[in-house]
């Protein structure tokens, strides 16, 4: 029987997954090999946003991305191809999710965290509409600056300024880097995100993303250009660590397409009363509701280590509110 506090906390949500929320067992002691295997199997051996990003990256690499030799000289032709390689899958993923979950309401409110609809006639948002606001910043700023970051890396690779890696030369590292990219992204995201909650940066940039308390698929990378520039400094690792253009593409989709699903507002995609795939991330949904918690991701336990972890419980909500009150007094 849940306590009164837990019942009130659960009542704040249309759907709340089982709490306390789990985090990556890779960083727990003593080691739990089976738990670690199950954790990564859920990302790589099942249909997940990670495997989707990998499939999109492979398709984009073979169907769209030019050869490195062509990218030695900056030119609108190949830059446009990189932009389209980002735009098309992003629009398909966000558009399809938005249509099914928000417009058609194909699964009603099943597994929907927040019962409210996307905001309309609300002056908080550009154009007074949450969806139009999100689409504009997502595409005009997000996809453009994401592309610019990748173009810089591709140009550096093509001209020998960034170390490149070929599968035949080092197959173990070639494969391992795909697993390490989401971990690196989590590490980078925590520290950039934490910096964005510094009041001057928050007011200038991050407040735009936090207009979305009740998130939707287009909220994923709906950010201010200043935030996008900081967000995509993630790609600088490719100027230091040997990698391949396929890694750069995969990195971009992990960084930008995964948030489409994690911000969908729904725990799972349900079609025909059957669970088809996991979508939302309640860990990050809690951040959009309570702000000063869960700055990172479940991939790395930075929030637990630095005292900002919200595990979904009523106790964690009380602690977060107390911390927030202390921060702003």
UniProtKB/TrEMBL annotation:
Source taxon at top rank: Bacteria
Cross-referenced PANTHER family: STEROL DESATURASE
MF terms in GO: iron ion binding; oxidoreductase activity
Main location (coarse class): membrane
Domain Fatty acid hydroxylase: 178-308
Signal peptide positions (record): none
Spans traversing the lipid bilayer: 39-63, 83-102, 135-157, 172-192
Listed name of the protein: Sterol desaturase family protein
